[in-house]
Model the fold of this input.
Amino acid sequence: MTQDELKALVGQAALAEVVPGAVVGVGTGSTVNCFIDALASMKDRIAGAVSSSVKSTERLLAHGIRVFDANEVERIPVYVDGADEIDHHGFMIKGGGAALTREKIVADLADRFVCIADASKLVDTLGAFPLPVEVIPMAAAQVARRFRATYGGEGRLREGLVTDNGNYILDVQGLAIADPLGFETEVNQWPGVVTVGVFARHRASICLLGTPAGVETLRF
Ligand code: 5RP
Done:
């Protein structure tokens, strides 16, 4: 099976996690696009969605799925999103699609985070994928220096990219994140950091992993 076929497989499988009658949280990325397309088949059985990006909102609306502002909902039962890396504890690196800040906000509204990913995303230690960090533009160079001094990571600005929130993305290479919770807590303190792409406090509850043998469910 190709990677795209595995993404379609887990996008479809995630429908079983959606709570009928409720608002569902929707992430961002190519795997989530498969989920959104599948969700269209049950759009009359959900109240609507809360979206984590302009791109996902546009796709949801194109399918006729109602999109709520995050401020309109107090809790949602389930948030479905992809990941750039996920480890065996459900800790993730996210933000390859530059939507990490809104993704963490919607994840925070949710009782359960359902991660959908193809098998290439499963890792022992987070950090081989360059870590996305959303920064206030004027802090970009200082945050990059702090990564170098603290963790030996090399931060590069993602060229030409401005997030949905008007900020920049630093992609930090050369990390091996042994303690995701401690790392997230530390980097969150740095002035100018809006969101770090380590999802430890908001880790996955389950992962639907697309493998050539089918969908494997990892529970954390
Ligand atoms: C977007 C994300 C995505 O979930 C992550 O980049 C995975 O994307 P894809 O499903 O396209 O591989 O965090 O900000």
